[in-house]
Amino acid sequence: MRAILAGAMLPAALLLTRATASPDVDVKRYEGRAYGADGAALLYRETHWLYRDNGVATRLVLYSCPDGPPFARKTLRDTGGASRPDFDFIDGRDGHREGARRSQGGHEIYLQERAGTPVRTRQFSSAPDVVVDAGFDAYIRSRWNSFAPGTDLGVRLLLPSRLAAVDVRVRDETTDADRVLHQRRLKVRLDAWYGFALPAMSLVYDDDRVLREFRGIGTIRDEHGRHQEMVIRFPRELSASAASEAELVAAQRVELSGHCP
After folding, report:
1. Residue 193 above 80 pLDDT?
2. Widest Cα–Cα separation across the chain
3. pLDDT for residue 25
4. Any idea where the domains of the chain sit in the sequence?
5. How far is CA 171 from CA 179, 193, 233, in A?
6. pTM
């Protein structure tokens, strides 16, 4: 079902305003490629636009079929800080929607499994170690100098897809080979006795604190609605570059496809 129909099912209070006015500063754009767990088959492409809207750092992400149109969109606004953005995600294939927004005393996360199903919400109190969605990347960069090989840090992630918060440990597992390549390798594991049974996430950053590779369970679900293990790469040749306001507005307004060809 088209995204516009799915959006009509949500209470207005849960939706983030999608800016279509001129951004405050120049727009930057970069791209990533998501592959299956073996790193071979291309699953989708993602394009990120970075800009400021009324003084607030904002990110728009379009997820596109390998050789086709965009099918999902995410909007993030750093209203609660870079590690705790408000965000709204919509998948045009089935109307799946999820997100987080600041509320009194903390955050409210919400989930709509598919168009026409009830919107479920859950409230969480604020805490210094709470991180929301893509804010995890900002958290890593803000703690960059706290990492050293063999050390780890604890953080609590809010996961709207599960209507839950989970405690994870982030461990620096940079090798000598990584240092030669001027990169840092981090492993993220669930901080629980049964964490060994769950897939870990692996993150590779370059020395400029730019994420170059993600390995783990991704946000985008497969055709059966299941979250899948994947590799997402952000090649240097697709790093941030200037984009036009017209390109940003087009990305904000484009109709999402209901399927990938």
Report:
1. no
2. 52
3. 62
4. 3-15+25-253
5. 16, 16, 20
6. 0.88
